[in-house]
Amino acid sequence: MDPEFWNQRWREGRIGFHQQQVTPLLAGHWDAAEVPSGARVFVPLAGKSLDLLWLAARGHRVLGVELSKLAVEQFFTEHDLSPTLTQTSSGTHYSAGAIDLLCGDVFNLDATFLADCAGVYDRAALIALPPELRARYADELYARLPKDCRGLLVTLEYPQQEKSGPPFSVSADEVRSRFDANWELTLLERREILDTVPDFVAAQVSTLHTSAWRMQRR
To answer: Are 111 and 144 in contact (CB under 8 A)?
Structure first.
């Protein structure tokens, strides 16, 4: 998927994927992931998610990666944070308190940034990618996370023929096929949420489920 696709959506304000609240599955299931207190948590395709603040408030150091400079700048502005900026080979590094945001392509992320990430939280990354990029994402990026890294993966499932992504439908079978070789997976919850997502209702999608997966690197 062309990076300009996402940059244009941010410029035009077409960010229906951005939530005005903390993700319920994060609040409900993060403790089950058993990420150590104070651990650094990797959040790919972070946008300007309120989940970043929630994780920081739980005592974690947060490393988000986001392609859109506009999204990164809006995050810090909207929360009255004044980050320091550093140029790196992976993009511009914004840092304020417990939150670090790298503005750059997640596929170009230097492995050194992930070396001390004992946690991972993926709500909007895997489901944002078409199938061919999901394979690369799982094989390349998750492989850089250290042994015993643990966290939470949130997915969506719906009849893909009824609506084009993103976000894309990712089934339980696909989650297992992508990650089972290197990660212990536990399905914590699967719930129907169609009535809460107006865009899917308007598109006449027949069913929409979201799932929370506990992950632990073997």
So the answer is: yes
Pairwise CA distance, residues 177 & 166, whole Å: 20
Q: Are the C-beta atoms of 135 and 177 separated by less than 8 Å?
A: no
As to burial, measured by CB atoms within 10 angstroms (0-12 exposed, 13-18 middle, 19+ buried), residue 161 is exposed
Return the H-helix or E-strand segment holding 55.
helix 51-57
Torsions phi, psi for 57 (to 5 deg): -65, -25
For tokens 């410029």, what's the residue? 11
pLDDT means over runs of 10, the chain (218 residues): 72 70 96 96 96 98 96 96 97 98 95 96 95 94 96 98 96 97 98 95 97 98
pTM: 0.94
pLDDT at 18: 62
Whole-number Å distance between alpha carbons of 68 and 6: 7
Q: How far apart are CA 51 and CA 127, in angstroms?
A: 17
Q: Which residues contact 133 (CB under 8 A, 6 or more apart)?
A: 1
Phi-psi region of 149 (alpha: psi -120 to 50; beta: other; left: phi over 0): beta
